[in-house]
Model the fold of this input.
Amino acid sequence: MTDRAFAVVRQGPLTTVQDLGRGGHAHLGVARSGALDRPALRLANRLVGNAEGDAALETTLGGCAVRPRRAVTVAVTGAPCAVTVAGRPAAWGAPVRVPAGAVLDIGPAVSGVRSYVAFGGGIAVRPVLGSRATDLLSGLGPAPLGDGAVVVLGRPAGRAAWLDGVPAPAPPDELVLRIRLGPRDDWFTPAALRTLTTAVYRVSSASNRIGLRTQGPPLERAVPAELPSEGLVDGAVQVPPDGCPLVFLADRPTTGGYPVVAVVAGRDLAAAAQAAPGTPVRFVPGRERVPGRR
Done:
């Protein structure tokens, strides 16, 4: 087996391989998937000289640890965390050289949820539908990493980028999500729409890569009928039977049967990916609504 690889020493709560996803396959029932915090993935790849869309690791809350078989340059971005190499402190948000056989440990997130670990040359697992991303809902892509797994790396093509400071936003103390109402806002009472845009919700611990679940005042339906399944997009705010808004993320289903009251602006989804359980959430309306059938 090639020595251009690393072995997983500590898998963490959930560590997956992610790139920028497999867009363009919704008609096959396949969501985009890919990194939830796409700017963080792009930055990590730039720091080690990779193309922005190369595959890297996405950790969740508890980090992970790996042991490369040969020396490799790595960078950690996203949720701030302690980084050590062979037990010694190393930089977060900068290129770090890891010798062959040394353990690279990505500690638990100090704030935020997901950290990104890029390796010079990228992760070279077999692509599926043009992407190496793990999709937890469909099962496409490599399985989440387990202890002892060996992951193959590609050959470095660029040089590491040294920066004086990392232009990365801090995880939010309060998550503000800009929304456009629709396409099914007419399925809710006027009072429910006021509640959606004025109440403070909180991120639920049941959130995952499929969606950010919230806890707070339920939204009252004006139309009690069943809704035939309709297409879903990233950021769709669906309202399940408990009445609490659910914001769909990268591993979402491509169709759903509960009404979508609004859609979150795409530029706000990276912050949603870093909002830890308990974080306050506010939905702020825009001037337009999402077109839909009436």
The radius of gyration is 20 Å. Residues 178 and 284 are 5 Å apart (CA to CA). Residues 38-47 form the longest helix (10 residues).
